[in-house]
Design goal:
Elements (H helix, E strand, L loop, with lengths): L2 E5 L2 E3 L5 E8 L8 E6 L5 E7 L6 E3 L7 E6 L4 E6 L8 E7 L10 E2 L3 E5 L2
Length: 120
C-alpha cells in the first residue's frame, strides 16, 4: 500500500521558517515525481512545488518561489519542504503527494496533511 506521512508542521511567527518532512513507503520512491500541495482556509487545493525523481529539477508556484525549497533523499525515501520567510497567507494544511504529471492539483496519492499556522 502506498503511504505518505507528513511531519514538521506547527505554529510559527511571520518571517519564520519551518521544514516539512514526508516519509514515503509502499512504492519505489526514487522513480517518481513528487510534489507538495496546500489548502488554505476556505480555499481549494493549491499546487506548491514539485521535484523530479532524481532531485535535479524543481518547480514552484509563484506564491512561494524564492521562499520555499523542495528536496528529497531517495536513500531514506524522504521528501522535504523548507519554508522560509513565512507569511500569514501561507497558513494552510500542507500535503505531500505523488502526482502523475507536474503541477497536478488532484494527485492520485497524497498524505493526510499537516497544519502550518503563521501568526503573531
Amino acid at each position: 500500500e502506498w503511504q505518505l506521512v507528513e511531519s514538521g508542521g506547527g505554529l510559527v511567527q511571520p518571517g519564520g521558517s519551518l521544514r516539512l518532512s514526508c516519509a514515503a513507503s509502499g512504492f519505489l520512491f526514487s522513480r517518481y515525481l513528487m510534489s507538495w500541495l496546500r489548502q488554505r482556509p476556505g480555499k481549494g487545493l493549491e499546487w506548491v512545488a514539485n521535484i523530479d525523481d532524481v532531485g535535479r529539477l524543481t518547480d514552484y508556484s509563484d506564491a512561494v518561489k524564492g521562499r520555499f525549497t523542495i528536496s528529497r533523499d531517495n536513500a531514506e525515501n524522504m521528501l522535504y519542504l523548507q519554508m522560509n520567510n513565512l507569511q500569514t497567507d501561507d497558513t494552510a494544511i500542507y500535503y505531500c503527494a505523488k502526482p502523475t504529471v507536474p503541477r497536478q492539483i488532484t494527485p492520485p496519492v497524497r498524505g493526510q496533511g499537516i497544519q502550518v499556522t503563521v501568526s503573531s
